[in-house]
Amino acid sequence: MAATDNSAEELIPGSKTYKKIDPPDVQQLGASSWSLLHSIAAKYPKTPSETQQKEMSQFLNIFSHIYPCNWCAADFEKYIRENAPKVSSREELGRWMCDAHNKVNVKLGKPKFNCDFWEKRWKDGWDE
Ligand code: FAD
Fold first, then answer.
1. Measuring from atom 53 of ligand 1, which residue has the nearest CA?
2. Phi-psi bin for 125: left (phi > 0), alpha (psi -120 to 50), beta?
3. Around Cβ 44, how many Cβ atoms within 10 Å?
4. Of all atoms in ligand 1, which is nearest to the CA of residue 115?
5. Atom 8 in ligand 1: residue holding the nearest Cα
6. How confident is the prediction along the chain (128 residues), in pLDDT tens digits per residue?
7. How far is Cα 86 from Cα 48, in angstroms, rounded to an integer?
8. Residue of minimum CA distance from atom 11 in ligand 1
């Protein structure tokens, strides 16, 4: 599927000037980042190799160091220290990610997501 190209829409019609779209705030950054993280889990192999498991653990560790919201990163890093990422299968990683997201949901006073549905939300889609 072709990627969507929004760059033309971001130009003021008839000019070469960009609309003043602000950098993402913590909410926008968070929603985009969770999309990326859950989608990564959805595409992770069902039976990953040793190398794939090591790389996933490294990625999540590095992600928690560089996430561009300092207090979010600090809490995520602590969560990873206390709850090592489960990388031995797609199912385990998907549920681990869902639990990690729920930890943040609870902290922010949002409802928990039912992790039995993580694959429908992020991989297979919902039944009609
Ligand atoms: P989001 O929480 O971004 O969720 C996006 C979508 O994911 C939802 O619409 C839902 O369909 C689905 N979803 C929700 N929960 C789950 C789940 N458990 N498993 C699978 N799918 C789910 N914000 C702060 O203010 N303080 C913080 O400390 C903070 N820490 C963060 C740490 C990380 C690592 C990340 C990625 C984000 C963090 N955020 C933090 C941002 C916050 O989690 C939300 O992304 C943000 O508040 C926007 O929320 P939202 O309502 O758009 O939905």
1. 31
2. left
3. 20
4. 19
5. 31
6. 555 567 778 888 888 898 888 999 999 999 999 999 999 999 999 999 999 999 999 999 999 999 999 999 999 999 999 999 999 999 999 999 999 999 999 999 999 999 999 999 999 999 88
7. 12
8. 121
